Amino acid sequence: MEETSFQASQSSFSGLGKVTRVSKLNTREEEERLRNKIRADHEKALEEAKEKLKKSRDEIRAEIQTEKNKVAQEMKKKESKPLPPVPVPNLIGINSEDPTDKDIREKRDKIKEMMKHAWENYRQYGWGHNELKPIARKGHSTNIFGNSQMGATIVDALDTLYIMGLHDEFREGQDWIDKNLDFSVNSEVSVFEVNIRFIGGLLAAYYLSGQEVFKLKAVQLAGKLLPAFNTPTGIPWAMVNLKSGVGRNWGWASAGSSILAEFGTLHMEFVHLSYLTGDPVYYNKVMHIRKLLQKMDRPNGLYPNYLNPRTGRWGQHHTSVGGLGDSFYEYLLKAWLMSDKMDTEARKMYDDAIEAIERHLIRKSNGGLTYIGEWKNGHLERKMGHLTCFAGGMFALGADGSRDDKAGHYLQLGAEIAHTCHESYDRTTLKLGPEAFKFDGGLEAVAVRQNEKYYILRPEVIETYWYMWRFTHDPKYRQWGWEAAQAIDKYCRVSGGFSGVKDVYSSSPAYDDVQQSFFLAETLKYLYLLFSNDDLLPLDNWVFNTEAHPLPVLHLANTTLSGNPAYR
Ligand code: DMJ
What we know:
Blueprint: H1 5-11, H2 17-24, H3 28-53, H4 57-79, H5 102-126, E1 131-133, E2 138-140, H6 152-163, H7 167-180, E3 188-190, H8 191-209, H9 212-225, E4 239-241, E5 247-248, E6 258-259, H10 260-263, H11 267-277, H12 281-295, E7 306-307, E8 318-319, H13 326-338, H14 344-360, E9 362-364, E10 370-372, E11 374-376, E12 379-381, E13 383-385, H15 390-399, H16 407-426, E14 436-440, E15 443-446, H17 460-472, H18 475-491, E16 493-494, E17 497-498, H19 517-530, E18 542-544, E19 550-552, H20 556-559
Antiparallel strand pairs: 1-2, 3-4, 4-5, 6-7, 8-11, 9-10, 11-12, 13-14, 14-15, 16-17, 18-19
Helix pairs in contact: 5-19, 6-7, 6-8, 6-19, 8-9, 9-11, 11-12, 13-14, 15-16, 15-17, 16-17, 17-18, 17-19
The chain binds 1-deoxymannojirimycin.
Residues 327, 387, 458-459, 518, 522, 546-547 line the site of 1-deoxymannojirimycin.
């Protein structure tokens, strides 16, 4: 097979190349040459400064302003330059017939109506803000978006609107993005969240609609995230200031560490960015992370959640398939799927990781429920998070192609996790799942601590129902999904949108007054797909990022990046 540029850039990968080159300059002549250059530059700068001092303050101010305008104009020109054309991947299943079964059609219509309710209230009360406070009826934001107002809900919701056929709403969103979405803001944002919600959302909207504006905005934004990778190891900071490019980590993270589920959840979007721009910079960044992880020792074969970007050492030995770890495993599997199963290195890393997880973290309760616990310094905590429930879908998705042909085993494991997570919903008053639930001291699949009893419109359980439905067509998954949809409509719907609830065991729970952007991106999308035909976004052609944004499989063996003029 002909070697593609994609493969070529893989083999020539070396994140430390520059350092090696610099060290070769250490000859005497080179040093002398550099010294002379520094001296000359210095003298020139002094001359210029003297000249400047002869001018009045106003003249200097005017000059600075002219210079600033020039730079701003150049940046604008560069940003809106059209990107090189690339072969469009095979986009199958963007549209699909309505389900023939009347009952299923009506259920799907109900989900669409819920989406309209969420969107219209956001548009009326929170437009342009990141999220909505549906009770206070005003905009909302959290620290993951810094102090920015980047319309997170608009970007996150676009592809859901598109597949639901809500084209007027989609165009409103597109118009806002075109005119208002600006990333030159002095705001410190989460690299991971911006990647999965904004870059993922924009890329999916681009592939579905073909509108160039989404691709351009995704690339502009990606450029703003790149400074986060300027660390001694190339493991990115958790946060970056979009204007200054200064990065840092969360204060709460163990020993100044970056988080596995954050730096390990960039691969899908970054490979697409390289594909679309012809610029390998994004691809090289994520491959560097992968190579570094491959070289590291893993306690018991498990990946700890914390890694220090300065030293390249693990922080605390905590391993989780829920928060802090989750989507790292998901992206290993999806990197393989997204590459049309060519990226076997990713598949191997996934298989190794999952085997260790099964050995150390997955157990059966006395009542026969399979659960995934958390590994904390050599001890298994018998607690599972709502976030961990996505793993049922992941196991099912990874069944085909599993090592030693254990497809049946992994599909069964997916079904068991789906069942456990359904129990966590069914054992509550509201029939909505708590944030975390225990398997300890006679208690099974129920939350114990008050601060773990909330439900914030999360998607993971419904996500797993949808994957299980696609792979088994067992009607119970549609039934469970419908139960969850009804419970959300009954207990989370308010006249100003949808809100999370603080206690799923209380019959009159308090609202948290937040309509999360992932409710529109994920929860409602997975529900809609659960009541759609399988030929809408078929899993052989699309891979969903961790925020449920569908990205097409890149059949690199056929289309090849070398088809892209920028790669030749
Ligand atoms: C989403 O933003 C993503 O699914 C992420 O991977 C973790 N969970 C939230 C929603 O619960």
